[in-house]
């Protein structure tokens, strides 16, 4: 991939869009999962939030593990070979394409994000097995039809696709609008496709306090929701067992099932 990939723009253009004067959710989350792609403002906010609610570090860590289990389940047990990951965030260990292609080397993955630092790292992220393909779209969650049109350049949208939206829908303040965005994306995918969502939830005073502090920081606000609001994203779909659950308790592979303020699920489009 060149430094002037038409999908992502020139490296200089992307770098020019990076604002280090205030925290950003992707960099903040990256700090919490032990990454190095963050700046002083992100670390300052992260340390402040950890003083208020240390449990948010567990949310970040366990949400990442949930992603891996969900992708492995879909690739190995459901035969899914196409993944559309919206709100990708900064690459760490076990990104969607790595998990999927370890399970099924012919998997095709499209990442979607519009954060400039994420785009800058996309050049390193865009690796693939010879049998599969990985692509990246610079697009906004609020443009479902654009996302689907661009994704169709890599994915066959007549065949099942797993739509993944992790820790992203909280940025959409209005729950009805968030549901509409998910519905429009799923409407463009065929029967047999899957929806994977997890988000932080307003299930403890600590999480609510942490969310309020985060939203005062100047970063794009993130709104924690009730569990039934997370469940509403899956209406009309067939939930995979165990349904909507804390991310640590969705098909756990270890005994680490710590209670966390984050819920997720996987569901099939009939």
Number of helices: 10
> Which whole number gives the mean pLDDT?
88
Q: What fraction of residues sit in β-strands?
A: 5-15%
3D shape = globular
Strand count, sense and barrel status of the largest sheet are:
8 strands, mixed
**Residue windows where pLDDT falls under 50 for at least 5 positions:** none
For the termini, the CA-CA separation is: 37 Å
Number of strands: 8
**From the structure provided, what is the oligomeric state, counting identical versus distinct chains?**
single chain
Encode the helix/strand succession as letters: HHHHEHEHEHEHEHHEEE
What is the share of helical residues?
Answer: 25-40%
Radius of gyration: 17 Å
Q: Tell me the structural class.
A: alpha/beta
Question: What does the model show?
Answer:
This protein has 270 residues and is an alpha/beta fold. It is 39% helix and 15% strand. The protein contains 10 helices and 8 strands. It is globular, with a radius of gyration of 17 Å. The termini are far apart. The model has no long low-confidence stretch (mean pLDDT 88).
Brief descriptors of the model:
8-stranded mixed sheet, 270 residues
Topology readout:
Blueprint: H1 11-16, H2 25-32, H3 40-52, H4 55-77, E1 82-86, H5 96-103, E2 108-113, H6 116-125, E3 133-138, H7 144-151, E4 162-166, H8 175-187, E5 194-200, H9 205-215, H10 227-232, E6 238-239, E7 245-246, E8 262-268
Parallel strand pairs: 1-2, 1-4, 2-3, 4-5
Antiparallel strand pairs: 5-8, 6-8, 7-8
Helix pairs in contact: 2-3, 3-9, 4-5, 7-8
